[in-house]
Amino acid sequence: MENKLYTQAETAALIKQGKLLIIAGAEVLLAGLPDGYWIGGSNPYLLGKDGGMYSEELLYVKDLTNLAADYNMCAYDSTDIGNITTDAFENSLIIAILPAHSKVLEEFAIRSPEFENQFINPLLGWISGSKFEEMGYALPTTYLGSRKFTDKGVALHIKLPANKVGRIEIINPYEQGNGDEVTFEQDGFSISDCFVNGVRTNFYNYMHKRDDLFLPLVADYAGAKINVAVMMDDQNKRVKFFAPVFRDTLYKIAKPVQTDYIHFLSDKLQREGKSRIEYSYSCLYNYFNFALEKKPIPGLVGTFTFGEIGYQLLNVTFVYLVIQDRLS
Amino acid sequence: MITGEISHQYSNFVLQLLLSQARKDIIKKRMSMDEAVDKIYDLCSKYAFAVKNDVIEIFKTW
Questions:
Q1: Eight-state DSSP code of residue B25
Q2: What confidence tens digit (pLDDT) does each residue in A223-238 have?
Q3: Any CB–CB contact under 8 A between A277 and chain B?
Q4: 3-class secondary-structure state, position B24
Q5: In chain B, what are the domain boundaries?
Q6: Sign of the CA dihedral A266, A269, A271, A275?
Q7: Of A74, A108, A231, B16, which residue is most buried, by most CB within 10 angstroms?
Q8: Considering only CB atoms, which chain A residues are within 8 Å of B57?
């Protein structure tokens, strides 16, 4: 399959051929696709050969037919999303798409680190959204074949051949700054108070005094730098987050990044050597913040998402999947 | 590795997340140390290629 973005007609033809697909694109295009072996989600921000773009004409289509020894497609709501890891095949990939602003996303984001069987198989995917200017009233969608949801996540469980293993890695341009240590007394997407260096502080006031509101909070998970993007809720004098903060985790405001993102990303990807990047996606924040419109990233096509899944909900991160031979 | 007494920046993403979660789960008594060791052993066996450099750096052997 050619490494490019596809028209709706080209995508429909692949579906009719019985291909096993993951599809990202504008809702208007997804709604016109035929039933078949595919999952999808609304997301009109794509990375093509010519760079990042907003498109209502093209789709990002990933064909996983040749990788699947077996597969299963499921929809999950907020009551059963915890089954996503126990429903997996023994040696498999779990690829999920969850709608932004949904209860199922909230449940996944808070509970996924503690899911039964978590970390046994790669759990990856992304959050669907809509045109940035229409967020809030255009509901993000997910698709299980031609079945459309706004309140359910969808997942493709792929059983890998016994001699193959899937591995997820992330690339994060941000790292912890040298400033205050910030902790929270509860898990959540919206917070009023926090502890700054152990002292109870109103987090809204704390952030309001800073001039670097665009910088995420960063936690260190045994070397993995995990971002939480911040949004000021001026009406309610609270701080909202695009992924939850956790009460038993220490955060710091990120160091400012002054880098050529494309060069940075390409340089980091070189660590994989000859391993092929099977599937990848990046945060929409990177698209805007690093001005990636019309800027190609050599060798990559994909999608800019409203949140990334790498076992748990991530923000402002590039996530990729590598399939490699299992070592005996 | 589990207690965090070995100061090492791991390079494999899932090992990083599992170690971090295991530390939290042990503190919360949701997981025993033995269970954590088994989980990490299984993971390192599966991702031998990806964790080999970390293991060699820590234990000086493979």
A1: H
A2: 999 999 999 999 999 9
A3: no
A4: helix
A5: 13-59
A6: negative
A7: A108
A8: none
